Structure formats: C-alpha cells, structure tokens
C-alpha cells in the first residue's frame, strides 16, 4: 500500500477505540491498538521507521475491529499478537495470553474459561483478572446450571455426574432438562457477558439477603464476595442503570416531538437506583408560552416544537413547584439558557453526558420519550387506566386440568406489548379440582422463586390472572403470603370484565388496553392448555401400557390417587380397593410404574 491508499482507507475508519491489522493475503503483518482508529491508521501514511515503511508497502489491506474502551483494545491486541504472531510486532517472550469466556458451538453448549476458544465458539473478553473471571463463571453455573464438561464426559451418559448432584449443572446429557429450557439458560448467561449485569447480580443479591435473614452468615458472606466480583466484572460500562456508590438524587430527561405532540420522559434515580419513571405531554402552545415567559421572544415561536425548546419549557414548569434534585441529566441542551442558569443557581448540576453510565441513562429516557401514547401505545394506556407506572413487563397466569387430574399452570410474559417467549414458564401443580387453590399455588411458586433469587427474569410490572374475583383473590393471597409486591388484576372471559382489587370494570370493547390484556390472557390460556394436554397424554400413555388397565380403570385410579406418582407409591391393599383392580393387576402396576 502506498501513502495515498493508507490515507484513503483511514478516512473510512471510525473515530472510536479499537484494533487494526495490516494484512498481506491471509497473513497478518502487524496488529495495533488505537483510541481513535482513523487518526492512528492515518499516521502510517508517513511511517517513522524503515521497518514499518516496509511493512506498509507489503500490506494489501487494513482490517479493524471496534471496542468499547481503550482497555479492551489493549487486551484484544495482546491476544491477537499471541495467536497470530505477526512478524512486525514486538512480542513478549512468554506465551501468556488473556483469558476469554467461551460458549462452545454445540447443540448443548458448554461454558469455559479459555485462552484458545474452539472454532465456532461465542467468546467474550479478553479479561485481565483470571480469578474474577473464574468466580463469575462459577456464579453463572450455580445460577443457570450450564455444563462445563468435555465432549468425552458428556456423550453416552446413562446417569448425571457429580456436577448435577452439586447443583451446578442441569444434566442435559441425560435429559433432566429439555433443549428449550437449556437454551433459555444459555441465553440468560450470554446476556450477562453482553453487559446485562442484573441478570446475575440481582438473583445473587436476593440469595445473599435471604441467607442473612436466615442467619446463614457464612453463606451470605460467600454470596457477598461473589456478588462484588460480578458487579465489578463489567466495570463502569456494566452498570447502565444501577450504581450503589452514587448517593445523589438525579432526574434524567429526554424529549421527543412528533407534529403537535411533544413528550418528555423522566427517570428518577436515588442512591444509584431507578425508583420512578414518568412521561409527560406538552402541546405546542404550552411550549411557546413558556418560551415567551422565559424571554425567548420570537425564537420560541419559530422553534417551539424542537426537543430543546420542549426541554426548556418542561424544566421551567416542572421544577417551579417541586423539590430540586441534585442533578439533572439531559439528552440535549435546553433552548433557553436562562432556565439552566436558574437551576444551577439553585444548586442543581445540569449536564448533557457524552459517555458512561449517565449517557446510558439518557439513552433509556430517550427511548421512553419516543414511545407513542394513546391508541398507538396500549401499554402506556393500560398503565394510565390502572393508575400504575407503564407496565413494560406483564406476566399472565392460567391453570388447566381435567377434573383435577394433570393439573398444570402457565406463566407467560409480554414485554412492551409483545410476547417474550424466552421468558415463558410452566409448572405441574397439585392434583385437585380446585381452581382457586391451583391459582394460589401457581402464583405463590412464582413469587417464592422471585423472593429467593431463583428466577432469572426481572420482576414484572403487572400480573394478569385468567379468571374472575375468586382467582384474583387467590393470587392476592399468594402475594400477601410471600410479601411480593406486584400489581395484579384479572380478566374474566365471559363478559371480558377487568377485575381489580378495588372493583370490577367494563372497558370499551375497542379500547387498546383491553385488547392488550386479552392477548396476554389468551396466550396464558393457550400455553396452559397445551402443557396440560402433554401431561395428560403422558399419564394416559403410562397407565395404558399396563396390562389389565383400560380407560375406565385408569380414570378410577386417577380419581382415587390423583396422579401416577401416587399410584406408584400406593400399597397393594389400597390398589385393590379400586374397582377393577385385582391382585394381579396391582402387582403389574407396582412392577411397571
């Protein structure tokens, strides 16, 4: 490559941190890192040494990879140099490289810490602190029970290994977990390495607090140490909406404008935790009037409906009658500088952050501001109708059974109005013909898992129960018993009545918020019925395979004992008490089951 070719290539590169390679055919000649890829590569148009000039002349192209930080670029450069051994790099004499966390390219992936990932593996890193990486991987395996064994140990097993007994593997090798469930666990673990710290930190924190409350102080201390390693793993970039070291009260504001419709989203943070969020509407007249009052004059008329003008109007109106926060983070500078001067004179730090956690908070606020309202936003309309915060996550519950047999429950999830199938769950329930007791058990199961940190999903903003007042009362009893504080309503099928803790309401048939509840309810029902049919077919198949047991005898057995498990554990005398079951059939049942 000559100087002009280098300059031309440099002009197409991003001005971000990353790693670049000078290549000749399939050979890497040189690997370098940069805080600004464009600026650094451009410098090679005028090399400072004959050796580097020779390298540039031999190269036929320049490749690059962008990283989030300069530190990541440094580590990636080091690993590439170790692996590729480019002749123009000065290499360390030892063969040390930084570790990565890899998920292998298998139908049932394993997780491993490695310096040389297998072909096709999804790898995260590199990382400098091996001890911290290993601690985090142990926490991942303890929470999501991913396999860590070699292919040789995995294949051809007839029973689970010691990892299963220790609770750090779900034993997909012997079918203790199905492929779908295991894939969901792998996806959750990968979300952590992609920056979603709460996927692992939140359940760890709940388990630590539960252990402390139970006076299991040694276990709580171990979980605390593990939690500290997890929270420090991603550094500043991993704590997008949470930072316990921040003791300020902060408001984060962003505005969006569509025609005459202006919206401001506000996120409120206290001690590093988001504790409230709200959306506010302004019309063009209100923005213009506020601009005139602030002294913006004719400019307010011309630019009334820009995000900068909307923010200026909102700040003036909102904080005129409210307590000031310690800081206000904005998506852009307000159009009226007097408003900013006023806030700063009151001791409020006003900033437009460019990077880090604060910038991610602003980005989140901007996404909320851009969410449309009214009929185009049934989620927001539902929150307004129920008097709760916008229910981004809704979980729907239903129970299905056949006269008290093959009793199952479904727990489906909708995020921002769309089904989130990866977060669906299902459960076999106690065999009984009692819809209220079954719903109480199902909701209690979900609540207890959340309280104990055994559910990897975020807490929902709303629970929807398929049923009427009785089912809603059962669900509320379960919530009260466990102390899980989540809003809950029910939707009755017959007349499509919305049942809330404060009364029953009939909404307009064409209300978008009603249609959203119906979609969640119907999906919970479909998922429950589908699972019930599967369980029922399994039960029928097991009993039908027993000689001497026909459909009528099977029904009597299930009516008498409730489940196949109870039939299996019944005594000879109890079995022969059932009409149609003699000693020979009882012997066969006990042998086959």
From TrEMBL:
Please list the coiled coil stretches. Answer: none
Signal peptide positions on this chain: none
* A Pfam family reported for this protein in Swiss-Prot or TrEMBL: UvrC_RNaseH_dom
InterPro entries linked to this entry: GIY-YIG_endonuc, GIY-YIG_endonuc_sf, GIY-YIG_UvrC_Cho, Hlx-hairpin-Hlx_DNA-bd_motif, RuvA_2-like, UVR_dom, UVR_dom_sf, UvrABC_protein_C
Tell me, which GO biological process terms does this entry list?
A: nucleotide-excision repair; SOS response
Q: Which residues form the GIY-YIG domain?
A: 15-90
Q: Which domain of life is it from?
A: Archaea
User: What's an example GO cellular component term for this entry?
Assistant: cytoplasm
Keyword set includes Kinase: no
Where does the UVR domain lie? 198-233
Q: Which UniProt keywords apply?
A: Cytoplasm, DNA damage, DNA excision, DNA repair, Excision nuclease, SOS response
Q: Which family does it belong to?
A: Belongs to the UvrC family.
Q: What is this protein called?
A: UvrABC system protein C
The beginning of the lineage is: Archaea, Methanobacteriati, Methanobacteriota, Stenosarchaea group, Halobacteria
């Amino acid at each position: 490559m000559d100087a002009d070719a280098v300059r031309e290539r440099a002009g197409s590169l991003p001005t971000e941190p990353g790693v670049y390679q000078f290549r000749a055919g399939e050979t890497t000649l040189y690997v370098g890192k940069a805080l600004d890829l464009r600026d650094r590569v451009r410098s090679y148009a005028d090399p400072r040494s004959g050796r580097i000039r020779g390298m540039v002349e031999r190269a036929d192209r320049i490749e690059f990879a962008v990283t989030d930080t300069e530190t990541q670029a440094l580590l990636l450069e080091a690993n590439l140099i170790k692996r590729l051994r480019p002749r123009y790099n000065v290499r360390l004499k030892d063969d040390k490289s930084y570790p990565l966390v890899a998920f292998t390219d298998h139908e049932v992936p394993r997780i491993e810490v490695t310096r040389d990932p297998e072909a096709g593996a999804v790898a995260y890193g590199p990382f400098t602190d091996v001890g911290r990486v290993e601690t985090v991987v142990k926490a991942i395996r303890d929470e999501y029970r991913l396999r860590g064994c070699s292919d040789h140990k995995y294949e051809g097993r007839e029973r689970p290994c010691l990892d299963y007994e220790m609770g750090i593997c779900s034993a997909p090798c012997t079918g203790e977990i199905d492929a779908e469930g295991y894939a969901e666990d792998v996806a959750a673990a990968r979300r952590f390495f992609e920056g979603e710290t709460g996927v692992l930190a939140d359940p760890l924190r709940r388990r630590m607090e539960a252990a402390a409350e139970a006076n299991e102080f040694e276990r709580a201390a171990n979980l605390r140490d593990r939690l500290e390693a997890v929270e420090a793993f991603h550094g500043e970039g991993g704590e997008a909406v949470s930072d316990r070291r921040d003791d300020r009260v902060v408001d984060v504001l962003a505005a969006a404008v569509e025609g005459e419709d202006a919206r401001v989203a506000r996120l409120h943070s206290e001690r590093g935790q988001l504790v409230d969020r709200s959306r506010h509407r302004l019309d063009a007249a209100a923005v213009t009037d506020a601009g005139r009052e602030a002294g913006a004059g004719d400019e307010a008329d011309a630019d009334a409906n820009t995000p900068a003008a909307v923010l200026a109007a909102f700040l003036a109106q909102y904080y005129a009658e409210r307590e000031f926060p310690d800081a206000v983070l904005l998506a852009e500078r307000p159009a009226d500088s007097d408003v900013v001067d006023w806030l700063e004179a009151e001791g409020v730090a006003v900033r437009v952050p460019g990077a880090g956690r604060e910038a991610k908070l602003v980005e989140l606020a901007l996404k909320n501001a851009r969410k449309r309202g009214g009929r185009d936003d049934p989620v927001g309309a539902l929150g307004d109708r129920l008097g709760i915060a916008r229910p981004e996550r809704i979980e729907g519950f239903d129970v299905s059974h056949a006269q008290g047999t093959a009793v199952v429950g479904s727990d489906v999830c909708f995020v921002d109005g769309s089904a989130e199938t990866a977060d669906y769950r299902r459960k076999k329930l106690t065999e009984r013909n009692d819809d209220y007791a079954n719903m109480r058990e199902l909701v209690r199961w979900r609540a207890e898992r959340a309280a104990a940190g055994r559910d990897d999903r975020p807490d929902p903003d709303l629970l929807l129960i398929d049923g009427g007042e009785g089912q809603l009362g059962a669900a509320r009893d379960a919530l009260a018993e466990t102390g899980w504080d989540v809003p809950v309503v029910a939707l009755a099928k017959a007349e499509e009545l919305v049942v809330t803790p404060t009364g029953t309401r009939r909404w307009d048939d064409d209300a978008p918020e009603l249609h959203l509840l119906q979609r969640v309810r119907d999906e919970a029902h479909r998922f429950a019925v589908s699972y019930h049919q599967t369980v029922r077919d399994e039960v029928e198949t097991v009993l039908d395979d027993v000689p001497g047991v026909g459909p009528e005898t099977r029904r009597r057995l299930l009516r008498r004992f409730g489940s196949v498990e109870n039939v299996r554990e019944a005594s000879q005398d109890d079995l022969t008490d059932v009409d149609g079951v003699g000693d020979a059939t009882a012997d066969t049942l006990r042998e086959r089951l």
